[in-house]
Design brief:
Helices cover 31% and strands 22% of the residues. With 249 residues, the chain is α+β, with helices and mostly antiparallel strands. It has two domains: 168 residues, tt1808, chain A, CATH 3.90.1570; 48 residues. The protein has a six-stranded mixed β-sheet with strand order 1-4-6-7-8-9.
Length: 249
């Protein structure tokens, strides 16, 4: 008697790239999410082993699509800087984010301070920052946590002479500042503001316009000087016609 064996195809596990939800709850959150990803991407653009992204699914347990988190902004050191549809830790030498920034809103506040905080600690995220652009849910609006022996401890807040709140990121070697409620990134070494692509383009246009104005003013000054010299030469020639020594005047 021959026994037949049936083979059933194994359905591959799916790891969705998106959940169909909007990028952020509102304009305020979306604006700063895009800003942070933009300026950090520019800052690390010449570092091939630093990956900057945001609102991307990070799967951290192979075979379990439910083990997923999607930070608003994150930075990972030690992996290729390339585009990804999603991030699977087991395909990336088990590297997890080193820095995370969540743009807090009404619907994400409890999750950002509860479940996500626990997940990030479990994943070994060294720094976890939160920013509330509307000032309705966090006081102060900008807060940071640093992982120490598996637990998050608050990052010390520094108040500058002008009242600006400043927090230092040891991971990024940058400062996060709260200027009139607006989040800005600064280079800790040079003190320069990190600019987005749009801000860089605006600054470049302003600089070019200023240079053009300076060149036009220089040309006008040179033209005026030339006219004055021509008038002086004509006057000297006229005086000589009258047998008057110009130097005697």
């Amino acid at each position: 008697m021959t026994t037949s064996v049936e083979y059933y195809p194994i359905t591959p596990i799916e790891y969705p790239d998106e959940d169909g939800k909007p990028l952020a709850e509102g304009d305020f959150q979306r604006k700063y999410l895009l800003y942070a990803v933009d300026v950090l991407g520019i800052y690390f653009q010449n570092c091939p082993n630093v990956y900057v992204s945001g609102n991307l699914f990070i799967y951290y347990e192979k075979g379990n699509p439910e083990s997923v988190v999607a930070p608003d902004v994150f930075v990972i050191f030690g992996i290729d800087n390339k585009e990804r549809r999603s991030y699977k830790t087991w395909q990336e030498n088990n590297k997890t984010p080193d820095f995370v920034l969540e743009i807090t809103s009404k619907t994400t506040r409890s999750r950002d301070q509860g479940a996500k905080k626990g997940i990030y600690a479990f994943l070994g995220v060294r720094e976890y920052f939160q920013y509330d652009p509307t000032g309705d849910y966090l006081n102060p609006q900008l807060q940071g946590l640093r992982l120490l022996e598996g637990n998050y401890l608050p990052v010390e807040n520094n108040t500058m002479p002008d009242g600006t709140l400043s927090l230092s990121s040891e991971v990024l070697q940058l400062e996060l500042r709260l200027e009139a409620g607006k989040l800005r990134f600064y280079d800790s070494v040079t003190g320069q503001t990190l600019l987005s692509h749009e801000e860089e383009a605006t600054a470049r246009r302003i600089a070019e316009a200023a240079q053009q104005q300076a060149e036009a003013a220089q040309q006008q000054a040179e033209a005026a000087q030339q006219q004055a010299e021509e008038k002086a030469q004509k006057l000297a020639a006229k005086l000589r016609e009258l047998n008057i020594d110009p130097d005697s005047l």
